[in-house]
Structure formats: C-alpha cells, structure tokens
Amino acid sequence: MVETSILQAKADELAGILNVDLRNEHIRARTNHWTGMTLMILAILASAFAGLGGLSAKLGAQTVGAIALIPGAFALLSTTIKFDGRAMWHYRKKRELDALWRRLKFEMPVPPTADQIALISAERSALDKKLDTEWEKEFALGWGWFHAKGKK
C-alpha cells in the first residue's frame, strides 16, 4: 500500500511538471506569434504613414525618411529572430509534451508502475534533448555566417 501511494505521488509529480511545461510552452508560442504579427502590422502602418506623409507634403523629408526606415528595421528583426518559426517550435513542443501528459494520466494503470513512470520521464528527457538541438540549429543567433565569410 505504501509503495502504491509513493508511485502515485511520483506520477502526480511528473504530471505536474509536464503541466507547468505545457503552460510555459503555450505562453512562449503565443508571445512569439503575436510579436511577429505586431512587428508586421507596425511595419505596414509605418510604410503607409511614410508614403502618405511624403505624398501629402505635410511631413518634412527627414521625418518621412525616418519613418520609412522602420519597416526595414522590423523586417530585419523579424527575419533574424524568426518569430513565426519559434512559435511553431513551441507549439510542437507543447503538443509532444501534451501527448506524454495524456499518456501518463489516461493511458497508464492507476497507479502506474515505476518502470512506466521512468519511461515517461526518459521520453521527456529525450524530447528536450532533441528539441534543444533543433533550437540551436534553427534559432540560435550565432556568428557562424560571419566567420565563414572571413575564411573565403
């Protein structure tokens, strides 16, 4: 009976950890998505404002020029940081963590065995390792392109 309650406590603790991870990934995904969308909307508005200001001659050339720089800066920021790709990565991680959570909560016997809990935990560790490697390859801001240019 004591072993059963210990196993259930471990399963509940792992489910809690997965639940926190799910919430965090959802927040990160939404933040990246809306940051990218906001930058795009601001770039379009700045471009329209600069164009209308230049056509109407109500704004000075320096003001129109300054406003016209905004879309390019936002485009550079957006392509460098890759907000959409990051959002999709976080949503994918959330889906995979959710699958582990559902398996632990609904597809395992109550209480799960120690081996079953260990398997879910090991799969979470493997998922973290796989996705961390992918993150570094896709989204890490490195200077590799700069070093490659210098070697030519």
Q: Mind telling me the C-alpha Rg?
A: 24 Å
String of helices and strands? HHHHH
Oligomer: single chain
Global geometry:
elongated
Fraction of helical residues: over 70%
Note the total helix count: 5
Please characterize this protein's 3D structure:
It is elongated, with a radius of gyration of 24 Å. The protein has 5 helices and no strands. The longest helix is centred in the N-terminal third of the chain and has 55 residues, at 2-56. The protein has 152 residues and is mainly alpha-helical. Helix content is 88%, strand content 0%. Helix 1 packs antiparallel against helix 2 (61-81). The N and C termini lie far apart (69 Å). The model has no long low-confidence stretch (mean pLDDT 90). It has helices at 2-56, 61-81, 83-106, 114-139, 144-150. The protein has one domain (2-141).
Task: Give keywords.
152 residues, mainly alpha, elongated
Task: Summarize the topology.
Layout (H helix, E strand, L loop, with lengths): L1 H55 L4 H21 L1 H24 L7 H26 L4 H7 L2
Question: Briefly, what is this?
Answer:
The protein is an all-alpha fold. The protein has helices spanning 2-56, 61-81, 83-106, 114-139, 144-150.
